[in-house]
Protein: RET5 protein
Organism: Catharus fuscescens
Amino acid sequence: MPPNLTGYYRFVSQENMDNYLRALDINVVLRKLVCLLKPDKEIMHTGDHMVIRTITSLRDYVMDFDLGVQFEEDLGPVDGRKCQTTVSWEGDQLVCEQLGEKRNRGWRHWLEGDQLHLRMTAEDEVCVQVFQKVK
């Protein structure tokens, strides 16, 4: 049975965000700004329904979805694109596949103790973020 990811997580660290954003064709000014942000994550996980909020001082981003059901995700606030997105479990990892203009786009969430890990991919770039559970 997959873990329940419900909780509030504070930003700890990130690696390779600038190159990841470059792969998404984000302009240099916005890339520099995003690299300075320290987002928090709030996850509400009830059965096959999840809401993942990414919370920053600039803007929040909310994903509200049912596991295993493809939906159109509007990534306008991120990079101006729309994707056909499916989120499902692969073992203990929550895996998101975002089909659209960019190859190999998606992410994985998993827990290691009280830390939430996020691995985001776009094209050949990988960004890893770590968050500490606070409640």
Remarks:
- The radius of gyration is 14 Å.
- The first strand starts at residue 7 and ends at 15.
